[in-house]
Specification:
Elements: E1 3-7, H1 22-34, E2 40-42, E3 47-54, E4 57-64, H2 71-75, H3 82-85, E5 88-98, E6 102-106, H4 114-123, E7 129-138, E8 144-145, H5 150-157, H6 163-186, H7 188-195
Parallel strand pairs: 1-4, 1-5, 5-7
Antiparallel strand pairs: 2-3, 3-4, 6-7, 7-8
Helix pairs in contact: 1-6, 6-7
Length: 198
Amino acid sequence: MPYIIAGLGNPGEEYENTRHNTGRTILDSIRQEYSKDDFEFNKKSNALIAVAKIGKEKVTLISPETFMNNSGKSISTLVKSIKSAEKLIVIYDDFNLPLGRIRISFNRSSGGHNGVESIIKAVKTEAFLRIRVGTAVENAKGLAKVPHGEEKIEKFILGPFKDDEIKTLKKVSKNIVEALAVLIKEGKEKAMSVYNAG
């Protein structure tokens, strides 16, 4: 059963460099590293799909062309059982983590992230892998400056990255590219111990 790596975000040019599209942005870096193919639109999944190879493992990369809240509709066309969900890796933004940090986890709640909530409902399990990517501004203590209130949160996550933040995101993309190789070759526990430390 091949791994499926999903990058979450919203389709359309107006969302391209926004914080909420971090998953899609990083998925493209993964494709550039591990695939010879461009993304192609798959009508059945309503998603952009590419096949890649990480080590000896064939993986499918999927970027839903639905809006974030309906991500599960696309992903459930590839993840058709609770067993296959164990090889699903979902990459998405987290405004509770400072930019530059990542957290790999398995079998957790959605943490209030609408895209992840949609996937949990569609695949009928929480038992899949997640790579949360920090998008928050860091304060003097190295903690995330978390926006409060629905309006402020929406403005923040749908806002674009600044130029210096894009440079940081590129470094994060490289870390995730490396983390995926460790995860797939050596297992999730090893990847968590190495990449959750920072």
